[in-house]
Amino acid sequence: MRLLVMLIIFVFLNAEPITPIPLNIKYDKEKAKLGKLLFFDPNFSRDKKISCASCHSPEFYGADNKQFSIGVYGQVDKPMNSPTVYNAVFNCWQFWNGRAKTLQQQAMMANHDKLEMDMDNKTLEDRVNSNNLYKKMFFKIYGKNYITADMVYDAIAEFEKTLITPNSKFDRYLRGDKAALNDKEKKGYFLFKSYGCITCHNGVNIGGNSFQKIGIFIDKIDIPRGRDRYEVTKNKNDKYVYKVPTLRNIDKTAPYFHNGSVKSLKKAIYLMGKWNLGIEIPNKDIDYIYLFLKTLTGKQPKSLDEN
After folding, report:
1. pLDDT tens, residue by residue, 215-268
2. CA-closest candidate to residue 249, choices 286, 194, 206, 219
3. Distance between CA 143 and CA 30 in Å, rounded?
């Protein structure tokens, strides 16, 4: 395993494995406008108090800064930390265990989850069809008098496509503005690649495109498993395996790991080095990598300011 990691590091040191977030993305503006209303509307949870934005708030870059989110009727949504919805359009799978392939599936599963919104399609359709504003907006887009649950999830997913955060310092650097990063940040990126963090965190979302076991290089990990990839595949080798999280806006989306047990980004860097790279990264190098990770904070999505 260590030899394979070294080989991948060699390749990545001589190539650019991260691509910048596009400045714009194609989407249906009218549908996204409708999806935005639905995203922030708490009426589509059982107790009418929880919206998508309750766990995926713009204030916290698409997360909620809690170890565990609060769902309907004040329930604590254990055992998984809510991942950010920002840039989720670039993920190959949704949820920590990848049980949803698309943003529509993710929206539906969260809406049905007993600890999150606890809805069913019939109740959802009753509520949305009783709203005259939604009736008019859905008819204009879908040409149907009756709004189905699938249409609701489709509109929410269209809005979520718009939640991209381009133009981070690092993206500007990748586009050719070499002065966008200072020397310490550049050294942090070099160390990020040299230590092998890049083997899992690469691509446009710097994660979200693979699964990995947490604790590759330790015999026993003292952390609850939660809902891992095993829940989806039933393959015993997928226990403690999770989707590699995005590092986009990572400085804004604490706490960290699948169960939100790590509050500090520097501690997360240290533990990942020890658990998944088999390396005790020195504190001075953690400081450099931390400075690099802070350059991954992008601009808030433009769609949040659009009416």
Report:
1. 999 988 888 999 999 999 999 999 999 999 999 999 999 999 999 999 999 999
2. 206
3. 13
- Residue 302: name the closest of 27, 104, 20 by CA: 27
Amino acid, single-letter form, for residue 249: N
Which pair of tokens denotes residue 233? 């595949």
State how far the Cα of 224 lies from the Cα of 66, in Å rounded to an integer.
17
Residue with the two structure tokens 């990995």: 212
Model pLDDT for residues 200-217, shown as the tens digit of each residue: 999 999 999 999 999 999
Does residue 81 contact residue 223 with C-beta atoms inside 8 Å?
A: no
Q: Tell me which residues are annotated as active site.
A: 116
**CA distances (Å), origin 154, targets 63, 110, 150, 292:** 21, 14, 6, 36
Query: Cα–Cα–Cα angle for 243, 259, 207, nearest 5°?
Result: 25
